[in-house]
Give the backbone structure.
Amino acid sequence: MRRFLLTTAAATAIMLGGCVIVVDENGRIHDGDKLHYSTDALNTVLDTDGDARLVGPDITVTGRADGTVRVTGADFVARDLQAGAVNATAADIRYSGSVAGDVELQAADVRWRGPVGGAFEVSAADLNFDGSVGDQLSASVADARLSGEFGALNLRAADVHLTGEAWVNGDVDAAAATFRHDGMIEGALDLSAKTVFLDGDVDGQVSIQADPGRAPWRQNDGRVEINGSLAGGEICARHVVITGEVTGLLQVTADEAPHVEGGSVADIEFTPRNGARCDNGWEG
């Protein structure tokens, strides 16, 4: 196999669908039949019907790859990239564009802008997502801020914020230290957390375990605030405060009866917690 050493800043190890590609002096990638290596940073344009593999310390790419884009690098920046699927491992990922299929990411910091047609799976420290996911978004992160439309959510995080622009068509399964919901959940909410702020709406049933942990407690440990609209469900917590609307039966196990402060509840069943632990998936 012949090898071509690229002397421009666009050089890196790039493989497209088993074929080798040619990068011209303008950084544009063309289908070829050889493999190209370099350790320099990559700044280029993809244009292929197949897959693309990019390996290098700093990768900036735009264009299109109808197959899977696989990336290994320190920093990965995609600008208006149209891809069939994306699989990336990097320290920092900044993606704008669209993906027709699935996305799988491993990174320290992820900022994503754009639609994903399939599933989105990420392990990271920080996730800032603004776009859409046709299937389920699954995240194991420290902090997550989510805006856009989602088929479903499966979240494991320290802090989760579903913004007022977040709309979930299906169910949400989450474990977090602090969970804040300002948007819309059409399905059910199954949540384990220490502190919960529900300022948005949940059309399905909720199952919330807000165990405060062992004393001494901080002020918000085991606190659930309902400031939006719920269909009903069950909550185990230390304190429950309702300023919003609950249209169905809400079963509450807590240290004291729920405080209804200007809100409305169709029906409440209260059971004293008496120091019992809530079944909490969040170990904080």
In short: The chain is about 0% helix and 65% strand. Residues 149 and 167 are 5 Å apart (CA to CA). Residues 1-39 have pLDDT under 50 and may be disordered. The chain has one domain: 63-272.
